Give the backbone structure.
Amino acid sequence: MKTVRPYRPETLAVHAGRGIDCASGAITPAIHMSTTFERDPDGGFSRDLIYGRTANPNRTQLEAALSAMEGGAEAACFASGMAAVSAILQALKPGEHVLLPDDIYYGVGAVAESVFARWGLRHSRVDMTDPKQITAAVTSDTRMIWVETPSNPNLAITDLRTVRKIADEHGLLVAVDGTWTTPILQRPIAYGADLVMHSTTKYIAGHSDVTGGVVITRDADLPIFQTIRTIQKEAGAVPSPFDCWLASRGLMSLPVRIRAQCQTAAHLADWLAEHPNVERVLYPGRRDHPGFSVATEQMDHPGAMLSFTVTGGEAAAMRVQAGVDLITRATSLGGTHTLIEHRASIEGEATRAAPGLLRLAVGLEHVEDLKTDLQAALTAA
Ligand SMILES: *Cc1c(COP(=O)(O)O)cnc(C)c1O
């Protein structure tokens, strides 16, 4: 891509950060496995490449593409989503305090407890759908509000504008876990977020074959982002060149994949809501969802993730997940395969998931085949 235009997401996904290889004319980038790069005779590094941990062409390319798609200034890629989360938390100081949502990706809550609490970083969990609770939890040591919307696994919707307003009143940073929405469905920087984090393992790479993460900043000069960049280069939880290449390949089809997945999810949500063996569907695209209006305002589409509770509680839910044939019983999301998961039994005691809740991560199969599979499993249960 030679010229910089305000390209649309589909176009950016294919072209941002990528170019024709000048030596060969290849449209697909080479995978640069080299861990070291030649220094100029005068001692300089005119190519800006020194050593594989500090920078790699495949990583730089993925960072440029993700930052362009998110409407950010710069990005730092990591070896996993949790490495990206950890870099953000490590960029805060011991003694400081962060507000986390009560309904949150299990791993973020776990690392805050198991690693960062020991390191002196304190946190409180609050219901981010209630502005009063957020304000009430702010202390003089609070530095950051962490947002995940829709949340996991209950699909609670947090109003990004409200969080920005509260953060401004108290001089706080706002970081958003954008894994579930990707830049295609929601762009938090446009709503005032300072940092957006993704597990690229999910929709961005999109084929359940890469583990990766990224932090994108709205402003390259933000001190916290500079610290995150230092953590990336010096602590070194960096992704491999091949993983960056795979994520970058996956990214090209993200807009069309997610559109198809969203369409199927919206259809399944309405169909499940009418099913006699289903108690409740949690999907922010449905009018009966408490976050419907905020979701409609800040998201381009309510997404491809949904949860539902089965009549008959945990035992019935376990029978439903045992009864699927096409749908795969597995954790994770954002890949080609539709996955079903009983969250309460994997999360253990600290879970916020109802005993009868099943989470569905909709993949790329035909909606009618998925319905037939769910129908059989629900009937048998
Ligand atoms: C998967 C996930 C993460 C963690 O990412 P990994 O790549 O598994 O380390 C963080 N947040 C959300 C919402 C996720 O779905």
About this structure: Residues 17 and 65 are 5 Å apart (CA to CA). The mean pLDDT is 96. The radius of gyration is 21 Å. DSSP finds 14 helices and twelve strands in the chain.
